[in-house]
Amino acid sequence: MIPDLDDTDLPVEALSGLVGKEVGVSSWHLIDQAMIDAFADVTKDHQYIHVDPAAAARTPFGGTIAHGFLTLSLLSAMGLEAQPKIRGMAIGINYGFDRVRFLSPVKSGSRIRGRFVLKDVRAVKPGELDITWASTVEIEGESRPALSADWLNRFYLETGAD
User: Fold this and answer.
1) Whether CATH 3.10.129.10 fits 12-30+67-157
2) What is the pTM of this model?
3) N or C: where does the chain have the smaller number of CB atoms within 10 Å of the terminal CB?
């Protein structure tokens, strides 16, 4: 975690000193069947292991599980909670992933949270930063995480910002 960081924005120049450090942990997020069903509807992925509790109970999972992409998509919400705010940031966007691994299924009714290590900071050009987060999504009460990913963000700074 970032020592002594409150709700104020972090100066851009402070980021390089945080490379390799855990910068935040999100709150726990409930993954319930309603969320899984809604995600299935949006993505049109209605595989029974996600949406049919009776059929999924007969699988090695013992019940329905969240889509891996549902868990991955929640990095945005978890990141907003846990990653430091950068002073002068006008906008941040998802830029992609260098690596994603789905390590354990997230059973319906589980809670997950995100852990973020600042892996790399690179100035693309003045006012534009690429940041890589080593991201892990933990499942409450489980020893193995749901996923691990190197998540890329691009941040655009306001004109005249640090």
Assistant:
1) yes
2) 0.89
3) N
